[in-house]
């Protein structure tokens, strides 16, 4: 909807949107929850949409969990969601290697958390790094040489609250010294609502660190890349023009929706709000915007 004027969601257009869409694609952080806390009215809204026969799908850039771990989180918050309704950037990273025939005898170094490791393992890949390297310290001594595995053929970088100098050196050496080593970013979100009260550094800052050391740009598999859309389309026989992407970030969620040909709805319950919207929406404009998905309860 670039170039067009964005509209505030209202009784009239919410009904039109509902009638012309078969699936709602929801971003998670800032739309469904903030950290461990559900956003008000979300379970009721999802129930309402399901009662109208809509398919609900969850597309998250947060790579710290696998699809299985996300399904558990949804259940613990009282929302019944199946693993196959979740499309996370951790899954995207493993699938990128899969569809590109990454050799199973090669290894993958992970700057990130458990979610990426679980998805790699499920896809049959051997991973190194991740949380296990979170407590490793470096001592910069004149005679010490940092050894890395020459068999690492890909480095995946995602959100990592335990990022350290050891992981930065490991990932950097693999990309710089192992011939053909891939540099994959799960996503490049600047910040995210990892807790309910404030925003925290997003995967974009971990990715930027490795861009800085290697002077290379990664392959990004999460939003706004439409890589995950192929998997979604394999599962749901719905044309993208009858899907609506709902998110709190313009440069990932809304752009992903637009890149894929979906309708788009921006919500002000996460990183974009009424005060920064004007500034942030210069390049990417959603079709609709509203305070929270719970507004649909009023409009539908
Ligand atoms: O927290 C992040 O990195 C982004 O996650 P989201 O795509 O669910 O908003
Ligand atoms: Mg979000």
TrEMBL record:
Transmembrane segments: none annotated. Divalent metal ions. Mg(2+) is the most effective. One of its GO terms (biological process) is photorespiration. Its cofactor is Mg(2+). It comes from the Eukaryota. One of its GO terms (cellular component) is chloroplast. The active site is at residues 27, 29. Coiled coil: none annotated. Substrate binds at residue 223. Mg(2+) binds at residues 27, 29, 248. Its EC number is 3.1.3.18. Photorespiratory enzyme that dephosphorylates the 2-phosphoglycolate produced by the RuBisCO oxygenation reaction. This is Phosphoglycolate phosphatase. It comes from Solanum commersonii.
């Amino acid at each position: 909807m670039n170039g067009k004027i964005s509209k505030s969601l209202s009784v009239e257009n919410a009904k039109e949107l509902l009638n012309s869409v078969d699936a709602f694609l929801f971003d998670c952080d800032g739309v469904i929850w903030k950290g461990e806390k559900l956003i008000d009215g979300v379970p009721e809204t999802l129930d309402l949409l399901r009662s109208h026969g809509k398919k609900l799908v969850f597309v998250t850039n947060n790579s710290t969990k696998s699809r299985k771990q996300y399904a558990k989180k949804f259940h613990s918050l009282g929302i019944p969601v199946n693993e196959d309704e979740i499309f996370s950037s951790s899954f995207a990273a493993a699938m990128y290697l899969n569809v590109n025939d990454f050799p199973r005898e090669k290894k993958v170094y992970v700057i990130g958390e458990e979610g990426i490791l679980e998805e790699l393992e499920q896809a049959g890949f051997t991973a190194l790094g991740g949380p296990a390297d979170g407590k490793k310290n470096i001592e910069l001594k004149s005679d010490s040489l940092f050894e890395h595995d020459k068999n690492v053929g890909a480095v995946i970088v995602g959100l990592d609250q335990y990022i350290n100098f050891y992981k930065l050196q490991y990932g950097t050496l693999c990309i710089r010294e192992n011939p053909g080593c891939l540099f994959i970013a799960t996503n490049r979100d600047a910040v995210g609502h990892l807790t309910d009260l404030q925003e925290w550094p997003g995967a974009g800052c971990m990715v930027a660190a490795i861009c800085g050391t290697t002077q290379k740009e990664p392959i990004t598999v999460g939003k706004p890349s439409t890589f995950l859309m192929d998997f979604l389309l394999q599962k749901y026989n719905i044309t993208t023009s009858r899907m609506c992407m709902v998110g709190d970030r313009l440069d990932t969620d809304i752009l992903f929706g637009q890149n894929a040909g979906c309708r788009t709805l921006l919500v002000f319950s996460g990183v974009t709000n009424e005060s920064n919207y004007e500034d942030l929406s210069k390049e990417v404009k959603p079709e609709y915007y509203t305070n929270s998905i719970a507004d649909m309860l009023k409009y539908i």
